[in-house]
Amino acid sequence: MSSDFRKNSLTLLDAIAMGTGVMIGAGILALTGQIAALAGPFFPFAFIAGAVVTAFSAYTYVKMSNAYPSAGGIGMILQKAYGPTTVAAGAALLMALSMVINESLVARTFATYLLRGLNMPRDTWLVPAIGVSVIVFAWLVNVAGNRSVGWLSVLMAALKVGGITVFGIAALWAGGVSFEATGGQQDTGVTGFFASMALAILAFKGFTTITNSGAEITDPHRNVGRAIIVSIAVCTLVYLLVAFAVGSSLPLDRIVAAQDYALAEAAEPALGQTGFYLTVGLALVATASGLIASVFAVSRMLAMLTEMRMIPHSHFGMPGVIRDHTLVYTVVIAALLTIFFDLGRIASLGAFFYLLMDMLIHWGVFRNLRTQVGARGWVLLTAIGLDAVVLAAFAGMKWQADPWIVVIAVVGMVIVFGFEHVFLRRHPPEAQHQHSA
Q: How far apart are CA 246 and CA 249, in angstroms?
């Protein structure tokens, strides 16, 4: 396997499939119930609000990718915004870690749906064991080569979008648009709704995968932005359709109780046993393929950060090139998170890391690059403000419900930036290492 990047190897359709393929996975399969637990009966609208915040955030990535389409992706944006500094390296590493965290979320979602389909307990050691197994499977597919990953990603993206859309339409057709979720008693207020947006935003963050492939997309100065916009729009429609379908099939208390497998729980009353098993099968395909695409994207990002001298690297005696090694690092970290954290904590940790990184990107572009890339300052500041409100609400809710995950997130951020500070002082980059097309 090579770590080289090929220009014009991805069409606009390929890029859209990549973005939607990474987004539609745990985003809708695992997070629907968690969002409902925070937002209450208005949880479908949390997806709309999350899409709005994501749209403001995507503006920055589109402007930067149109101006500097690069295989460096997030790392390139941060390095251009801040230079080879602790802030740039730390934020880039936070992004990579949030993507690895998402892999463990997807892996545990796969295990949860599989056990639900087999009618087996979902609070046993089997969840992490199955989760680690599917992570290893994703690693084996990636080791087989980029062509296998690319072909499978496009095929699975079509199956996921089509299959989940069919589920939503069928559930609404069978149950009617009665929206049973309004009958629940859970009401967390405005703060809960804003907090739920953090998880909704997490369901959309897969669009950044497109940014990381900018140099390989045909006509990247135009198509990177187009792919980001289309993939977010497609996912918004799919998420809304599914959220209303789940809300029309189940009362809110049942959605919250089955938050780790809400789609499967909603399929049975609406579509019967056959629909239930088809939904479980769809969930397994969606999570497994999403994990394969995510492992590919994260290992690629870590390889680029290594080449940009933003993180250290050691091959530990392993053969192959840098991306072979980063594949191993990716699956090992994801497996450890899968073993030690449940779905709720995994999602929370990913939301904390991603939102902070996102704010740092907007601020860096606002201060140093908005003129060069033609970005409107008020849009960048609005993106920062929206992220800040959502992050504050989410942290407040989590501090009341699970203070340990807030402590873990803060400590993790301190360690990341402290580590990068020491690394860059001891190994200063030889030059401003740019990766552009």
A: 5
For residue 407, the tally of other CB atoms under 10 A from its CB is 11
Total count of residues recorded for the chain: 437
In this predicted structure, what is the pLDDT of residue 163?
80
Output the pLDDT for position 25. Answer: 64
Cα–Cα dist 247/274, whole Å? 20
Among 114, 105, 108, 102, smallest CA distance to 131 is for 108
First to last CA, the chain: 21
Q: Determine the Cα–Cα distance for residues 14 and 6; give it in Å rounded to an integer.
A: 14
147 Cβ partners below 8 Å, 6+ apart?
Answer: none
Tell me how far apart the alpha carbons of residues 381 and 171 are, in angstroms, rounded to a whole number.
40
Tell me the pTM. Answer: 0.84
- Is the CB of residue 270 less than 8 Å from the CB of residue 170? yes
CA atoms within 13 A on the CB side of 186: 22
Helix ranges (DSSP H) in 186-219:
189-204, 208-211
CATH of 12-393, one of 2.30.30.240, 1.20.1740.10, 3.40.50.300, 1.10.600.10: 1.20.1740.10
Phi and psi at residue 217, in whole multiples of 5°? Answer: -85, 140
- Provide the H-helix boundaries in 212-313: 220-249, 252-257, 262-307
Phi, psi for 10 (deg, rounded to 5)? -125, 125
H helical segments located in 5-145: 12-23, 26-29, 31-39, 43-67, 74-82, 86-117, 126-143
Q: In whole angstroms, what is the distance from residue 67 CA to residue 224 CA? A: 10
For the chain, the structural domain boundaries read: 12-393
335 vs 320, residue with greater confidence: 335
217: β partners? 10
CB-facing half-sphere around the CA of 164: CA atoms within 13 A = 33
